[in-house]
């Protein structure tokens, strides 16, 4: 593979004697990875049911590689949201940001959702994730992936970082900034990136990265942690950006990242930062720096507030349906033009470009309630009164995913949660043993 001359010169300077090993990595096949969605299934349970060969990624506890002869994205377990297809080194930022259940988390550059889905899983139903991407088209893919993963305590926005900073001053416990970059770590997998690099190299992205990171710092609460990452090797975009932010924000300090044998230290004296090189690890490459804000009283005032309605005031048809859900919902519902949402308390009404406000529950129309695909993915199989549980090998499973009507042994009528091996896929409406397909048309197998 012919590298751009200027890039090759820089890499020779960075790697010295290791440059030859780096070049040899381009001759190796790309590494295919998937990350198990632990909000739906444990790794142990996944290993018992996975129908194709996988091998653990040693530095990611829920990460696996698989051979290029299989297609995990076409298996019913993918449609159940049990895993996300992701390059191994790209799993590292969300893994190394120490998110806990109940945390308030911001993913500032979140599309297409590989890192956001993991962050949502880690903060859990008691936590809250704001996933943002400035590109509205990319944010649509982000929303789909979050809903497929069953995340409900979410806000999905398409905003400039400064708009969010004005509403969430010193608010978030954890923040991830996987910044737009020159993409040098993608040259192996996507050689066309070299053309874009020659048009917009490190000197183009570094000022943008500093600006984005500065807004992120303003939204981090005292004692909170922020992880900055890129998929590029440029010191200007990596250590240079971090050093500039640390100089501008004396309340920030570098924090240690959980180590692994193949990790390399950051350059320019930033030993706590991590570089993942493709010739040292089974990944395309990444840079990570974890920062912590000093503990002190917050200076900002959060501008939140919600407009909600108690479940006791909802239409009778919605209340009847909620009685079938065997999970705990609070009273923060919002009925907007017959669409029902279950809101996180951090929802700020009508001030941002929202793609999703909380969990979209479904639509109330003509005196009936039609549950959403997002609600089906949020629920566990045991959390709905009526289910149809199909085996992955059952021909009806693929028929269902194609949108076809199927037969069922259920004696109950009305809405059923359709599952595969105990994991929800979507809705169906049963009458006299026939399940009318309600699987979301936009997700169907062609």
Concise synopsis of the structure shown:
With 446 residues, this protein is α+β, with helices and mostly antiparallel strands.
Question: What descriptors fit this protein?
Answer:
single chain, 446 residues, alpha+beta, Archaeosine Trna-guanine Transglycosylase, Chain: A, domain 4, ten-stranded mixed sheet, five-stranded mixed sheet, 14 helices, 23 strands, 24% strand
Q: What is the strand and helix layout of this fold?
A:
Elements: H1 5-15, H2 19-25, E1 33-36, H3 43-49, E2 55-56, E3 63-65, H4 76-79, E4 83-85, H5 92-96, E5 104-107, H6 114-123, E6 128-132, H7 136-148, E7 154-157, H8 161-167, E8 172-178, H9 193-199, H10 202-218, E9 220-230, H11 239-248, E10 252-255, E11 264-265, E12 274-276, E13 286-293, H12 316-322, E14 333-336, E15 339-342, E16 354-357, E17 359-365, E18 368-371, H13 373-378, E19 387-390, H14 395-401, E20 406-407, E21 414-420, E22 423-431, E23 434-437
Parallel strand pairs: 5-6, 5-8, 6-7, 8-9, 19-21
Antiparallel strand pairs: 1-3, 1-4, 2-3, 7-16, 9-13, 10-13, 11-12, 12-13, 14-15, 15-17, 17-18, 20-23, 21-22, 22-23
């Amino acid at each position: 593979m012919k590298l751009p001359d200027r890039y090759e010169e820089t890499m020779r300077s960075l790697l010295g004697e290791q440059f030859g090993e780096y070049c040899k990595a381009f001759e190796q096949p790309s590494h295919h990875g998937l990350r198990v969605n632990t909000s739906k299934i444990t790794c142990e349970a996944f290993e018992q049911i996975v129908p194709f060969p996988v091998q653990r990624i040693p530095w990611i506890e829920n990460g696996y590689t698989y051979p290029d002869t299989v297609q995990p994205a076409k298996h019913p377990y993918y449609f159940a949201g049990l895993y996300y297809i992701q390059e191994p080194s790209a799993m590292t930022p969300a893994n190394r940001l120490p998110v806990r259940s109940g945390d308030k988390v911001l993913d500032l550059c979140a599309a297409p959702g590989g890192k956001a889905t993991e962050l949502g899983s880690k903060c859990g139903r008691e936590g809250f994730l704001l996933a943002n991407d400035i590109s509205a088209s990319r944010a649509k893919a982000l929303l789909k992936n979050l809903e497929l993963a069953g995340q409900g305590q979410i806000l999905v926005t398409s905003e400039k970082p400064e708009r969010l900073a004005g509403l969430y001053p010193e608010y978030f416990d954890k923040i991830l900034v996987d910044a737009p970059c020159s993409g040098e770590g993608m040259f192996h997998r996507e050689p066309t990136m070299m053309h874009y690099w020659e048009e917009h190299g490190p000197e183009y992205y570094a000022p943008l990265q500093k600006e984005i990171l500065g807004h992120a710092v303003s939204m981090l609460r005292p004692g909170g942690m922020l992880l900055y990452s890129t998929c590029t090797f440029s010191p200007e975009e990596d250590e240079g950006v971090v050093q500039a932010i640390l100089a501008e924000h004396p309340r920030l300090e570098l924090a240690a990242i959980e180590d692994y044998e193949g990790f390399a230290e950051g350059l320019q004296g930033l030993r706590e930062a991590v570089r993942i090189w493709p010739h040292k690890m089974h990944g395309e490459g990444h840079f990570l720096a974890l920062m912590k804000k000093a503990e002190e009283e917050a200076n900002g005032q959060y501008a939140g507030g919600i407009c909600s309605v108690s479940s006791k005031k909802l239409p009778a048809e919605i209340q009847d349906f909620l009685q079938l859900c065997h999970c705990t919902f609070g009273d923060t519902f919002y009925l907007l033009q017959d669409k029902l949402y279950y809101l996180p308390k951090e929802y700020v009404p009508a001030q941002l470009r929202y793609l999703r406000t909380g969990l979209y529950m479904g639509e109330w129309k003509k005196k009936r309630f039609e549950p959403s695909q997002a609600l089906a993915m949020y629920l566990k199989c045991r959390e709905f009164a009526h289910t149809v549980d199909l085996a992955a090998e059952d021909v009806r499973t693929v028929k269902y995913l194609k949108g076809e009507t199927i037969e069922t042994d259920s004696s109950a009528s009305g809405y059923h949660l359709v599952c595969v091996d105990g994991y929800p896929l979507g809705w169906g409406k049963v009458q006299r043993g026939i399940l009318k397909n309600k699987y979301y048309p936009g997700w169907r197998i062609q």
